[in-house]
Write a structure and sequence with these properties.
One of its GO terms (biological process) is cysteine biosynthetic process from serine. Keywords: Amino-acid biosynthesis, Pyridoxal phosphate, Transferase, Transit peptide. InterPro entries: Cys_Synth/Cystath_Beta-Synth, P-phosphate_BS, TrpB-like_PALP, TrpB-like_PALP_sf. One of its GO terms (molecular function) is transferase activity, transferring alkyl or aryl (other than methyl) groups. The chain is of the alpha/beta class. It folds into 2 domains: about 190 residues, 3-Layer(aba) Sandwich (Rossmann fold); about 100 residues, Rossmann fold, CATH 3.40.50. It has 11 helices and 10 strands. Helix 3 links the parallel strand 3 and strand 4. Helix 1 packs parallel to helix 10 and helix 2 packs across helix 6. The longest helix has 19 residues. The radius of gyration is 19 Å and the shape is globular. The N and C termini lie far apart (about 45 Å).
Length: about 325
């Protein structure tokens, strides 16, 4: 194994994550499926990239001054990334999140020193939605900026410049498809745009959970949601600033049950403890691999994002009572016979 040289600062630990071939998904799809190990970022999620990109962009534009504050509305992971980056650079953090997210995320944010404000989950059109609440708090707080991860394209630029380039280099320029789910859309659009710069023929696919509206938008041109999902941080009902112009070639809809099947298999068979968004992404990668094979691509290679660690969901995905209450399958090893 080639060892990386020492990093100059702790912020240099963000990005350049390993890529791993997923054996079970590869066998299932009949092609090579790779997962980008974003849980190995300092904040244990892919959102560290957006956090660093947004804060550095605000500094470069002169909006964020020494001793300032970063305010954001988030399902949790972006807030954790922002808190860590802000700590390293001397800024305060205020995070607004829906109160139905995992307890682990809330406890982590408080432990990192962020000021945490929780609000009831509601539709984006409601003025009390967590995004709108965070914007108002930023406007009311002296020296604060609003990160605005959904519409601030510094988010997707971090993936154009970073994640896409890393994938291209790690796979030696031989990648046939990429897919992931969308929350802000920064990862999907950024990686898609970045990979298309290397090779326009690479297929970029949306993997959408139930309850989100993007599958219907890209399939039929209409923002329409069907069903529901317990997945945190993914699923979108509008075209965000980061999603505008995203080069989506095809789309898949994946159920929570299918995603949980891969969460379970990756843990038991390959030793990866992941969240539900990662399981949904892997199921989407398998679907994309099968489609590419059916379309005549010889020995396709598909990459996806392993978004965050499963340790962030011990009170939910890995809690048999919570799973049963949501009418979701309980992992075999958690059942009490």
């Amino acid at each position: 194994m080639k060892l990386l040289p020492p990093r100059e600062t702790t912020l240099d630990l963000i990005g350049n994550t390993p890529l791993v071939k997923l054996e079970g998904p590869s066998r299932e799809a009949g092609c090579e499926i790779y997962g980008k190990c974003e849980f190995m970022n300092p904040g244990a999620s892919v959102k560290d990239r957006a956090a660093l990109g947004i804060i550095r962009d605000a500094e470069a534009r002169g909006e964020l001054q020494p001793g300032g504050c970063v305010v954001e509305g988030t399902a949790g992971n972006t807030g954790i990334g922002i808190a860590l980056v802000a700590n390293a650079l001397g800024y305060r953090t205020i995070i607004v999140m829906p109160d139905n997210q995992s307890r682990e995320k809330m406890d982590t944010l408080r432990a990192l020193g962020a000021e945490l404000v929780t609000v009831p989950p509601t539709k984006f059109s409601d003025c009390n939605h967590f995004v709108h609440t965070s914007r108002r708090l930023a406007e009311e707080t002296e020296g604060a900026i609003w990160a605005n991860q959904f519409d601030n394209t510094a988010n997707r630029k971090a993936h154009i410049d970073g994640t896409a380039r890393e994938l291209w280099e790690q796979l030696d320029g031989r990648i046939d498809g990429f897919t992931c789910a969308a929350g802000t859309g920064g990862t999907l659009a950024g990686v898609g745009l970045g990979l298309k710069e290397f090779d326009e023929a690479i297929t970029i696919a949306l993997t959408d959970p139930h309850g989100a509206a993007l599958y219907n938008y890209f399939a039929n041109g209409e923002l329409q949601a069907e069903g529901s999902s317990v997945a945190e941080g993914i699923g979108q009902g509008r075209i965000t600033g980061n999603l505008e112009g995203a080069p989506i070639d095809t789309q898949f809809r994946i159920s929570d049950g299918e995603g949980l099947k891969w969460v379970a298999r990756l843990l038991r068979e390959e030793g990866l403890c992941l969240g539900l968004s990662s399981g949904i992404n892997v199921a989407g990668a398998i679907a994309l691999g099968r489609k590419l094979k059916a379309d005549g691509v010889a020995e396709p290679r598909v990459a996806t994002i392993l978004c965050d660690t499963g340790f962030r969901y011990l009170s939910t995905l890995y809690n048999p009572e919570w799973l049963a209450a949501k009418d979701l399958p309980v992992f075999d090893w958690l059942r009490e016979d």
